[in-house]
Amino acid sequence: MLDLNILPSQRTPLIDYKLENNKITISGRSIPENAIDFFNPLFKWADSFCSDPNRNKLSIDINLDYFNTSSSKCLIEFFRKMERCSKKGKEVIVNWIYDSQDESMYETGEDFMQIINLPFNMKSI
Q: Which residues form the SiaC family regulatory phosphoprotein domain (predicted)?
């Protein structure tokens, strides 16, 4: 399993996974022209993580200030892949990090928490 590092742009978030700390971070703004193309490396990484017998634990930190509908659908797809990993015995936890003044992002996190069957923490900053 390799590290994953997708640098952010004005339209796309940072996606960063470091093998040594078992944490993936998705942060910034996500309004790519083609969300499926942008998130495809993350989907492939998720499949690799799930099939790696040496990786049993993952923390997912989501710290987005804005994302569009197509990005939301891709996040749900990523979370679904992680749900399947969890059902295979891997420990996966989601940390939804939001600005304490951003009620919309808080509510979006709560919506994801209702949809996703993973431990889900809401963390204000």
A: 9-124
